Structures are given as C-alpha cells and as structure tokens.
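User: For my dataset I need records formatted as: sequence, then structure tokens, nothing else. Please produce one.
Assistant:
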Amino acid sequence: MFENQTAIRKRNKKMIEIISRQIVGDGIFPAAIPEVQFMRVSQRTSKTSVIYEPSVVIILQGQKRGVLGDKHFIYDPNQFLLLTVPLPFECETIGSESEPMIGIIIKLSPALIAEILLQMDDPTLSGDEVDVVSTRSLTMHQAGILVRLVESLATQESARILAGNTLREFLYDLMRESGGDNIKYLALNTGKQYQIARILNQMHQHYADDFDMAQLARISGMSVSAFHTHFKRITQVTPLQYLKVIRLHKARMLMINDNMTASQAANRVGYGSNSQFSREFKRLFGEAPTVNSARIKRDWFSADASQP
C-alpha cells in the first residue's frame, strides 16, 4: 500500500509540474487537444451547484466532493470521477494557495467511443449494472498512460503527433476494465440508459426550447410514467427540475462570459418572468444573479492579476 501511495505521489508530481507550466491562475483551461482540459483552484470553495458533461475527472492534488441526491462522491489523487451523462450536482473543492487543487478533465465524446468500439473484437456489454456517475481508482497501467498523455500535451508538436492516440489508448483501457459498460453506453444505441442519455443531451443543447414531456417520453420509447421513473433514477431530479437547473447554469455563464444583464440572460435561456428567474437563481446559487456574476468575475480578475 505504501509503495502504491509513493508511486501515485511521484506520478502526480510529474504531471502537476507539466500542467503548471501551461496554466495561470485559477479556473478551467483548454489543453492542446479539445478533449482535454486542466483545472486549478487555490482555495476551498463551499458546496455549489455545478454541471459536468460526460467526462473523466482526475484529481492530481487536493480534493473534490460531489453530492447527487443521497449519493456522495469523493474524488482525489486516489480515485477519479466517471460521469457519462450531463448531470447537475453539488460540488465542494478543497485547495489552498500552498497546495491548490489541480486536475484533468477528459471529455467523453460518443463519436470517439464509437470509433474505439468499432475496432474492438468484442464491443458488447458485459451486463454489469451501470451507474452514470461513479468513482474508481486508476490501475497502474492506466496511470502510466495518463502520464504519457500529459507529457504529449506539453508542446503543440507532440500533441499533434502523440496525444490523440494516447487518449484513445487511455479510453480503450477504461472500457476493458470492470465497469467499462458505463462508457460503452455512450455509443451503443441500446437500453433505457441510452434513451435517457439521448434526451438529456437534447435538453442540454436546446435548453431554451419548450419541452413537452409526453413527446420526450415517446421519443425515448417509454410511457410517460416509465420515462419519469428512469429519468429520475439517473438524474435524481424530475425532467422539469433538470431543465430548470440547466437553464440557470447557462444564464450564469452568459452573464459572466458575455456580460449580459440578468434580464437578457433570463430571456436567452427561456425564462418569461425576470422575478421567477431571480428567485430560482438565488435558491440554486445562494446569491442574486447580478451579485453572483459580479463576484465571480471579480475573483477571476483578482486571480489573474495576482500572477506574474
């Protein structure tokens, strides 16, 4: 056990050094290929609502704690988070100035997963029970691939030549392990989970539209009651609650990134009432829309300005 912990620390230190040369301040940063992002947080953040798209989230230093309904997830240098549908849940980050949380996000593209499955001798499902969100530990072999992936992202040239194949190798190894069905479901057109995932992606992409739940149930090939049951089992919320959270997150980013007013963002994401938008925003994020967006922009600006 001690040898494993020593190996993990040595492996992570090497990756942290490479990543730290490519990022400045706190936030989420693009890597040299679009499927990979780096993240850094140099403080402890209280529990707040977040949305992860299908991804593998690997923490090299620090810790994140997630809550989805009555399920709790801790992901840190000993275990990563695997999420195969776009889900809103509450998340707390543990980091500090002396030891910031540093991690890697690997986006799970159905097209890339399908490409790998087509080359596998046996791409069928194992039949194991599937959790759309779970934590697990990297094998030593997977950890070695991850180090090579981060090394390949250090320069544009190595990223062009090596990173794509190394990413495929990493995902292929995850799919071969126990629980690989979670990732395979992203590309296999089968089962209730796939049907719900398809609806989630549609709602995620067209969040401003008016959705008819009976129509979504028909598209999924289920009765309305069965659709609601399977939807809530996967997301821990009802379809209408899910859509509301997606809209509020999108509005928040419009205010932060595009400098929209609260009323402009509310209208853009499909809210017809500004007062309802403000009320539901404060309930989710703990602050009024203008206060929340101003604070986040101020924090980001301060973090950037503090860097040499």
